Fold this protein.
Amino acid sequence: MSMSSYPSPMSNITIFHNPACGTSRNTLAMIRNSGVEPTVVEYLKTPLRTEQIRQLLSAMGASVRDVLRKKGTPYAELDLDNPQWSDEQLLAFIEQHPILLNRPIVVTPMGVRLCRPSEVVLDILPLPQQGPLIKEDGEIVIDASGRRIRSPSL
């Protein structure tokens, strides 16, 4: 890898982000802690088109229902739990109401994931963590050596 191609890792990670969401903010912090400034798409300001959502779902191997967000959305009032809705109809609802798309979704050269919990992003970041990271709730995720701290199993 030549030095002239060094900036490329900065442009090949994208986060579909909601700055009001703690999980999304923690995920963005982990990406930045790997030394990369990702492309940040605030999808509530710049909603994704149906075809973009389809591409993300295909890359994740996920269904539309896998990325529907219930909390803090019109999910219940639209009766989206009802199996009558086809994937195409659900995609149309997401396009009309971008808040229905769960977040954050991160795209890297190593894969595409819905990063809930935020630590899921660590599995698809090409570069290691560069220092300690503490989530907003105070949980230590990365130690001073840049190593992931595994939470004890409950």
Remarks:
- Residues 22-32 form the longest helix (11 residues).
- Helices lie at 8-11, 22-32, 50-60, 87-96.
